[in-house]
Structure formats: structure tokens, C-alpha cells
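Input/output pair, single chain:
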Amino acid sequence: AFYARTANTLYQAPDLDKVIDEIYRYPLKDSARDQLARRMRDRIDDEALGRLVSDLRADNDLCNVTEDPDHFDPRIICSLGLRGDWG
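Output:
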């Protein structure tokens, strides 16, 4: 929301488009995931969140970037068990 609201304005965060692209292409590092979850629970505002992810990326602490993003091993993120009366 912050990116869309500030795009092409004086208040546009530098490199935020690259940060968003990296988040979609690569898995977050565990430390970044923990820090972002903690700050989201604290109800961080959009501008501070943008600064945080930009700073994490600048320090190479945001994502596990690999040369071949399509070569990730599959991981189970969530499992769901279903039960029903089948007659």
C-alpha cells in the first residue's frame, strides 16, 4: 500500500520496487521473518515497514538470494487433514 501510494512522488522510497521483487522471488531469511513478524504484531506503519525491509535488504539480511530461483527444493508450508463421513 505504501509503495502504491508513494510511487512516482517525492516521497517514493528508493529501491522499494527491488525490495518487493526480491521478497516475491526468494525466501525470507529466518531472522528477517522473525523481525518482520514481531514488528507487524507491534502494528508498524507502512512507511516504517518500507524503511525496515529496505534496510534489511541493504544489509543483505532480507532474503536467501540464489543464482537460480527456480531451483528451490519444495517445502511443505501448511498441511491440512480432512475427515468426512463417506458412508
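The longest helix spans residues 46-58. The chain has a mean pLDDT of 80.
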